Amino acid sequence: MMARKKHTPNFQSKRKTTRIKWQILTVSLDLILLNVSIILAFLIRFTGNLPKFNFSAYLDLALWITIIFAITYYVYELYDIERYFDWTGTLARILQANFLAIFLIIALSFILRVFAFPRSVYVISYFLISGSIALFRYLISSLFSLELPKENILLISGEAKLAALSREIKEKEHLGLILKKSIQ
Known about the structure:
Layout: H1 11-15, E1 16-17, H2 19-45, H3 52-75, H4 87-111, H5 119-143, E2 145-146, E3 151-156, H6 159-171, E4 177-183
Parallel strand pairs: 1-2, 3-4
Helix pairs in contact: 2-3, 2-5, 3-4, 4-5
């Protein structure tokens, strides 16, 4: 009888995740963090108390706030897997998307006549949302390495652009792009 070899999984392979899992995790946690950050902004603004009148204004807008942030993050390509590797660009897009989303929420609160939502909570929540989403994105990029599907590329181009395109594709090998052949 042969001794059975114990299989120990590679630590690196345990950390790899697929594109869809990354997107589901990111979208879900972004939206949870954003709503938790707004509730924390209320707690900070009202020193630990949630006044029923003001907080009910948030509850009236909570679904709209979540939808606005999800759409804004999508428009700013925060769920684009290819941009995952650009940390400084991601941070800039988070700040811009949050500014636009907060602006749209302020406009929506005026349109829907939800005046009980304190303006100071918008300001506090901008900083809390930006900080928590940025920290979350940084932790995700540190803890998970993405395993993107490999794509073989055949490059057909003129001589002038061939070298530049080849170099650009080789720089994106971390995205799964593999230059198989180039033809002039």
